[in-house]
């Protein structure tokens, strides 16, 4: 079985390779790393520990990478770390949130990424039509939804945030994940854990009622008992940017953005690995550890270090391989992934991509029944995805007007003046996108 990883020079690729070596039964015997940056490809290849059962090949040619692929993992970063830094600083400069996937930063990143992601989808359709595309590329919900217009149900988006939330909630109440069924629903980086069922009983109310238990895990400390009890659910960690927007804006203005931190740390790794290839694995591990320790630091603050159990490496690689196992004919699984809504949430369009628990087998991923969204949840999901769909329309329809609308209607922007400033600066910084939007 051949796995192609797009963005193969990306920093988190060794996590996927490490997880693969623990799953010899999956049947992957070749991994093709594709990246447009040969230097980054070489550094990551030096990090990977040799595994005789899995051949590694690296290439900068998409036409060389894709033929014969059974699975394609897409983890590209159009514009690199510098693009992310510009997105975040551009937003902060006009007084709104700068973050890779949320608000103005997420819309800018999405618009810059969509032309490339759609070109990749068309290349897969031509060169590897039977492959499954598993999308990690952020903003994951937006990119998955756009890619589906080319590849249909053979695109599934993944994220480790919901899995991490469910894992931590189970751990807090002393349950194994395999013993609990989670009602988690929303869109990528904007969802809620609304029940946690064990032996026919929802244990989430008991968790929400106990201050000490809430304080024992990340989301409980992040949001606080009062807000969680008021919501009656546990939000995805990225909802901190909505529920505590003023506080996080202050924190970001006073320090480095996440993009600046990652740009500097990871640039240091790539340079050091190129200078001393034998030490690449050691250098990578030290940088990875610091990356995980600092995740969402602007929300947690320096006095709330991450739990040791959450520092092993994100978890998205395990989600991807669980998904791959089920799709390739292994044991069917229940996984939280990004798929078309269908009739799952009748308040939303059928083709809108939601993030929820699905049954996954060789035929694909199908959402499991869930309770309706509350009015608050529905309103926030609809408003954010309407803005993201504006970004998709802007790129696919070459419409500057749709791009302006995308920024203006997002609930974390909400200003035509600011929307104009964001769009004008984005197009000035990205002539290729400016050409797309006329």
From TrEMBL:
Domain Glycosyl hydrolase family 4 C-terminal residue range list: 184-413
Cofactor: NAD(+)
Domain of life: Bacteria
Cofactor note: Binds 1 NAD(+) per subunit.
UniProt KW keywords: Glycosidase, Hydrolase, Manganese, Metal-binding, NAD
Transmembrane segments: none
Family matches, as Pfam families: Glyco_hydro_4, Glyco_hydro_4C
Family per record: Belongs to the glycosyl hydrolase 4 family.
Protein name: Glycosyl hydrolase family 4 C-terminal domain-containing protein
Organism of origin: Jatrophihabitans lederbergiae
